[in-house]
Design goal:
Elements lengths: L1 E6 L4 H10 L5 E7 L13 E4 L5 H7 L6 E4 L7 H4 L5 H22 L3 E7 L29 H20 L2 E7 L2 E2 L12 H11 L5 E5 L5 E2 L2 E2 H13 L6 E3 L5 E2 H12 L4 E5 L13 H7 L7 H18 L1
Parallel strand pairs: 1-2, 1-4, 2-3, 4-5, 5-6, 6-11, 7-10, 8-13
Antiparallel strand pairs: 9-12
Helix pairs in contact: 1-7, 4-5, 6-8, 6-10, 8-10
Length: 322
């Protein structure tokens, strides 16, 4: 059996990753997080440990000498309403950095040498993402550094932390810079939801002809990666030989107002948009997939309509059952 530890296994992406890994009967998966998944996708892990990973002893208890590899997704994070208000900066930086320091120290003690660290597209310089139609997000553009949030700075620092341990301690590191992963069974109404889930909820709660509030001008662009493509990308990055950061996201940009229109079309509703002030982040961001295609011979497919359909149907069922 291949013993795999997934940290952050109770979160949205982590719970999908565990399910994906368990499709291979040779994988023995150990999950850890503050709690099991909250939104209906029960953990498929062979073992699940509800624990605070900022506690070193907790990390030490599950990272052992028989661990083959680690997927490190655990972080203090959320959507724009959590990350960009500035109210949670200290927790975001302290908790996430502490977890990563614990993980690396435990790997060194247990002589575990392979880890995939999930970074974020939020590490990219704000000044390269002012034009919503032409953002610059090639991997090499990360420096000179100027992320748009403390969340982005923490992710960039942690990338360097993992690379330093790779250089000095012989740990085999993979780094994925995630671009707006979405899908069912994630935060949708607790203040940590991201744009696709938040907008699906607003459309589900609205009647045809209603107006919904949307933060920002609505012209800001993003690309959105369906979670199934994300977890497939994790495995490909882990199995590949490239050990520097790689974008993991869709290359298809859509405006936020355009995303509302897409969701409304899937819902079969006429929805009006009222753009209001609110936290929005940068004006434009998409995944440049040139490098991942070169290194892995693969890049995520465009599954936006399919993914939004799955996400909307799940959230709509919750709204209607409330």
């Amino acid at each position: 059996m291949k013993k795999i530890v997934v940290l952050g296994a109770g979160g949205f992406i982590g719970s999908h990753l565990v399910k994906h890994l368990k499709q291979n009967p040779e994988n023995y998966v150990i999950g850890a997080d503050l709690r099991k998944p909250l939104y209906g996708l029960d953990s498929h892990a062979d073992e699940f440990h509800a624990m605070d990973l900022t506690n070193f002893d907790n990390c030490r208890s599950i990272i052992n000498s028989d661990t083959h590899e680690i997927y490190q997704l655990a972080a203090d994070m959320g959507g724009a309403g959590y990350v960009f208000t500035g109210d949670n900066d200290a927790n975001i930086m302290h908790n996430s950095v502490t977890i990563n320091l614990n993980v690396l120290q435990c790997m060194e003690l247990a002589k575990v040498d392979k880890v995939l660290y999930t970074s974020s597209a939020c590490i990219y310089p704000e000044h390269n993402q002012m034009d919503p139609d032409n953002p610059v997000c090639t991997e090499a553009s990360a420096y000179p550094a100027n992320p748009d949030s403390e969340y982005g700075w923490e992710k960039l620092f942690s990338e360097r932390l993992y690379k330093a341990f790779a250089k000095n301690r012989g740990i085999d590191v993979r780094i994925a810079r995630l671009h707006n992963v979405f899908g069912p069974y994630g935060s949708w109404n607790n203040g940590k939801e991201k744009a696709p889930a938040a907008l699906c909820r607003k459309v589900a709660e609205a009647k045809s002809g209603d107006t919904i509030d949307v933060w920002g001008p609505g012209t800001q662009t993003r690309s959105f990666l369906y979670v199934d493509e994300c977890v497939q990308g994790f495995e490909r990055i882990m199995e590949g030989s490239y050990n520097s950061p790689l974008n993991l996201g869709s290359a298809r940009m859509i405006s936020i107002n355009g995303l509302v229109e897409l969701i409304a079309g899937i819902a079969g509703k006429e929805i009006k948009i009222n753009n209001i002030p609110g936290p929005v982040g940068v004006n434009g961001r998409t995944s440049d997939n040139t490098l991942i295609q070169e290194q892995l011979g693969w890049a995520p497919q465009d599954n936006l309509e399919y993914g939004i359909t799955q996400t909307y149907q799940w959230i709509n069922s919750l709204v209607n059952s409330a």
